[in-house]
């Protein structure tokens, strides 16, 4: 029997840190005289910090110096980190622990595959870091999703062939990355957005352990 490996994205799958990114970007935008809406924030999901700031500046028709650009990026990250420093286990999305506990109890290898450079700090804060056999985050990879690098690296760390891995993702770029890695892609969110996934669930409360066992 081929052992399955399970790979989880972090933001929007295990915890919802999107709201903190929104607050930090909104503060930055407002500080330089640009409006920032939830709709615009949606367009920044899965987008690098550099590209995100470029988008915000273009929405506000602002041109700034390279030095100011770097300063703003640092400021946004500091604000974001101050928000996540206050996180605790209450921030874990519903039924994520149920699935993780089932996998670890059954000795099924579990990895994290996230673009976030703060992934380890966040897992530490919400007391889930011990549930993962391998962690791949933004410090370990250079290519952004839909490039499959993050998931292929996670599979390699688990010692499991990519085609035997199952990925949980909440963004279309993440689903595409999983498919590009030849993995089973499970979308967490809206079917309309994640229609390239093999399965889509609103959240983990819709996933029963029987389904996990069958995978």
In short:
By secondary structure, this protein is an alpha/beta fold. It is 42% helix and 11% strand.
Ordered list of secondary-structure elements with their pairings:
Elements: E1 5-8, H1 18-31, H2 38-42, H3 49-59, H4 66-84, H5 96-105, E2 110-113, H6 119-125, E3 134-136, H7 149-158, E4 165-169, H8 172-180, E5 184-188, E6 199-201, H9 209-214
Describe this structure as you would to a colleague.
It is a single chain. With 215 residues, the chain is of the alpha/beta class. The protein folds into two domains: 5-15 and 89-214, Rossmann fold, CATH 3.40.50.1000; 18-84, Orthogonal Bundle (DNA polymerase, domain 1), CATH 1.10.150.240. Helices cover 42% and strands 11% of the residues.
Strand tally, please?
6
Main structural class: alpha/beta
Biggest sheet: strands, sense, closure? 6 strands, parallel
Strands side by side in the biggest sheet: 3-2-1-4-5-6
Order of SSEs: EHHHHHEHEHEHEEH
The name CATH uses for the topology of the largest domain is Rossmann fold
Question: What key phrases describe this protein's structure?
Answer:
DNA polymerase, domain 1, elongated, Rossmann fold, alpha/beta, single chain, six-stranded parallel beta sheet, 215 residues
